[in-house]
Design goal:
Structural class: mainly alpha
Radius of gyration: 24 Å
Number of strands: 0
Length: 149
């Protein structure tokens, strides 16, 4: 309140409309989400297929190049992009791409690269706080179940 002119107009009134609008929007969103998840079914095969589209493990490939081959990330990013482009031309996922094809782009790549190119390996490697690794997800489930009780 300090520093406001004597006739501040509607400065302190305009903020309330936004707060109430946000609360109304949140309430509607939560109701829609609750209704959506109440009766949905999960098709794991379709979810797996959808998750595999678009080369989601390309970053894992670049990280492997940095970690194992000691490439600078800018170079690893370029190599990974070239491999993704070749995989796209061949219409194969990165974990199904022949090692020889990858080695045409980067001769230092070994069979070991395939340990990081699956969706499972990618998800499991995300161990930072808030990551997608199953251990981290379980921690959050325990935390929020405790909060909601």
């Amino acid at each position: 309140m300090k520093g406001l002119v004597l006739t501040y107009g509607s400065d302190l009134q305009e903020d309330k409309e936004r707060v109430f609008d946000a609360a109304d929007t949140l309430e509607l969103s939560l109701a829609a989400m609750a209704a959506m998840i109440a009766d949905f079914t999960i098709d794991k095969a379709k979810m797996q297929a959808a998750a595999e589209m678009g080369f989601p493990t390309a970053t894992d490939l670049a990280d492997w190049l940095v970690r194992v081959l000691k490439k600078p990330f800018r170079e690893a990013h370029h190599i990974a992009g070239s491999i993704v482009k070749r995989a796209e031309e061949m219409n194969v996922a990165l974990d199904k791409m022949p090692l020889a094809e990858m080695q045409k782009i980067e001769p230092g790549i070994t069979q070991d690269v395939f340990t990081v190119l699956t969706l499972e390996a990618s998800v499991n490697s995300r161990m930072s706080l808030g990551g997608t690794a199953p251990a981290r997800v379980k921690e959050q489930l325990v935390f929020w179940r405790g909060k909601l009780k």
